[in-house]
Amino acid sequence: MINPEIAGIIIILIGLYGLMTKENLIKIVLSINVVSIGLVLFFIGTGYIEGGDVPIMPREKVVDPLPATLMLTTLVVDVAITSLALALILKMRREEE
Amino acid sequence: MIPLIVAFPLAAAFLTSILPALRRERFSKHLFLIGMLSPWLILPQIINNLPSNEVVGNWSRVSGIEVAVDAYNIPFIVAELILSAFVALYVWGYYPRKIENKAYVLILLLHSGLLGAFISRDLFNYYIYMEIASVASFALVGISKEKGARRAAFKYTVFSLLASYIFILGIGIIYLKTGYLNLALIKENLEMSREINVALALSFTSLLLKSGIFPLYFWLPDAHSKADAPVSALLSGLVVKAPAYGMILLTLTFPINTSMQKPLLTLAFLSMFFGIAMAILQKNSERLLAYHTVSQMGYVLLGISLLNPLAAAYYALAHSLFKGGLFLSVGSLAEHYGTRDLEKLSYRNNKSLMLAIVLLSLAIGGVSPFIGAFGKAMLIENLKGFLKYAFYAGGIGTLVSFTKLNYYLSKRGEKIEIPRRKEAISLSLAILTLLGGIYLHPHLSVFKDSISLVIAIFIFYLLRKLGVFEVSFKAFTPEQFKTLGKEINAYMVLFTAVLLLFLFNFL
C-alpha cells in the first residue's frame, strides 16, 4: 500500500514537472502550490502513528500533532507568497502594455 | 533576554503597519527608526553573557523553541545590527510619501526576520524567520523604481519559494528519523542513515540556491541590481547570509564526511571565479557589485566546506560591511546621475564618496589591515597546495574588477550634488571596515598586498588593451530568453539537475 509520505513526494515531483515545462506565469504559481500541497501531505504522513487517535484529550495512543501544526504555519506563508506572486504578475502585465 | 532582540523590531513593524488606519502616518518614520535601532539596547547584555542559550517561555528543551547566541552567530548578529542601522539612516525620508509607510514596514520585517534566523537553534523556527525576511525582500525588490524590477522580483520569489519547500522537506525527513527539530537534541539522538543523507542533500541544495552560489546564482544579479540602493545593500549584505548561517548550523550538528565536503568545496571555488569573471564583463555598476556577491558568497561557502564555521561567520561579517557600503555609495552616485551605466558615472567631484569607494574596494580585495584581510587570513589556514594559490588568484581577480570600477568612476563627469547624509553614511561604513579590521586582526603585510595590487593593476591594463571591457556580453542576461516563463523553466531544470547531483553525491 502507498503511504502518505510517498504520495506527498510524488505530488512534489508533479509540481516540479509543472515548473519545468509550463511557460504561463499563473501556471508556474499554481505548480508551486502543488509542491506545497505535496509537502503538507508528506508532513501529515510523518505524524501518523498506526492506529493512533486524535490528539485532543489525553488518550492512550495519539498521532503526533506537531507536523500538522507546522504545516499550518507553512500554509500561511504559502498564502502570503501566492498573493504576492500574483500581484507581481499583474504589475508586470501593466508594465508591458 | 535574547528573544527581545527580535521582539522589538517585530512589534515596531506591527505598530507601523496600523498607523495609516489610525491616521497617524506621519509618525511612521520615528517608529521605524526606533524599531531598527532598539536591538542595540540589548546587545551589550548579550555580549557580556556570551555564550548563552535559552528556551523561549522557559519550556523544557523538548517542547520549546531554543535560541542561543555564541561565537558562531555573534558575527552575523553584529553585522546585521551595524548594516541595518546605517541603512535605516539612509532610508529615512528616501521613499516617496505614497509608499513610505509600506517600505518601512517591509524593512522592519526584514530586520526582525534576519535577527530571528540568526539566533535560532531550531530548524523550523529558523525556516520561518528566514521566510519572513525573504518575503519582505521579494516585496522590497518589487517596489523598486527600476524597469524590470517586477520581473526580477517574480523570478526571485519563485526560486526562493521552491528552495524553501525543498528545505522543509529535508527538515521533515530529519524530524521523521530523529523525532526532534531542536539542533542540540538532534545531535544527541543522531544515528546517521541514508534518509538523513538525503535530508542533508535536499537542505544543502536549497540553501545554496538561497545564498546565490554558482550554478544556482541566476536570480541574484537581477534581484540585487534592480532593487533600490538601500534595499540592494540589505539583500547583498544580509539576506544571503541567513542561508549561509543555516549551512553552518547543519555542519555543526551533522557529521559531514568527505563525499559531502567535496561538492561544496568545488562549488565554492567555481562560485568565486565565475562571479569575478562575470563582474569584470559588466557595464552596469549595480550588476558588477551583484556578481561580486556571487563570488564573495563562494568565500563564505569555502569556510563552511572546510568545516571552519568561524572563518565563514567572520567573512560573512566582513562581506556585509563592505558590500553594504559599496551598494550604498555606488548606489547614491547612480541615483543622482539617473543612470547605472558605469561609463557615465564619476566620483571626481565628490571627495568623500571617492574616499569611501576606494577604501571599500581595498577592503573587498582583502588588503590589510581592512576587515576583509582578517576573514581571508582565517580562511587560508586550512588550505593546502594548489587551492592556496587558487585562493590568492581569487583575491587578485577581485582587485582587478575593482580597479575597473575605480578606473571608470575616476573619469571626469558632470557635477552633481549628493546630500551630505548619504556621503557621511558611506564614508562611515568605509572607515568602519578599516577600524573593524584593525580591532580584529591588527597586522600589516605591506609586501604581499602591494604585490597583489601591482599584479591586479597590470592585469587590468592588459585586459583593457585586449579590449575585454568593450565586449558586449549578451549571453546570461534575461533578454536571451523569449519569455520569463521559458527562463524559469530552464533554470528549474538546472536546479533539479544540481539537486540530483547532490543526492547522488551524499548517498
Characterize the structure shown.
Chain A has 97 residues and is an all-alpha fold. Chain A has a single domain (4-96), classed as Helix Hairpins (Orthogonal Bundle), CATH 1.10.287. In chain A, 74% of the residues lie in helices and 0% in strands. Chain A contains three helices and no strands. Chain A has helices at 4-21, 25-47, 66-96. In chain A, α1 (4-21) packs antiparallel against α2 (25-47) and α2 packs antiparallel against α3. The relative contact order of chain B is 0.09. Chain B starts with a helix and ends with a helix. Chain B has 21 helices and two strands. In chain B, α7 (149-178) crosses α10 (220-226), α15 (309-337) runs antiparallel to α16 and α17 (371-380) packs parallel to α19. Chain B has 507 residues and is mainly alpha-helical. Chain B has a domain at 256-469. The A-B interface holds A 5, 9, 12, 16, 19-25, 28-29, 32, 35-36, 39, 42-43, 46, 66-67, 70, 73-74, 77, 80-81, 84-85, 87-89, 91-92, 95 and B 124, 128, 131, 135, 138-139, 142, 147, 150-151, 153-154, 157-158, 161-162, 164-165, 168-169, 172, 175-176, 483-486, 488-489, 492-493, 496.
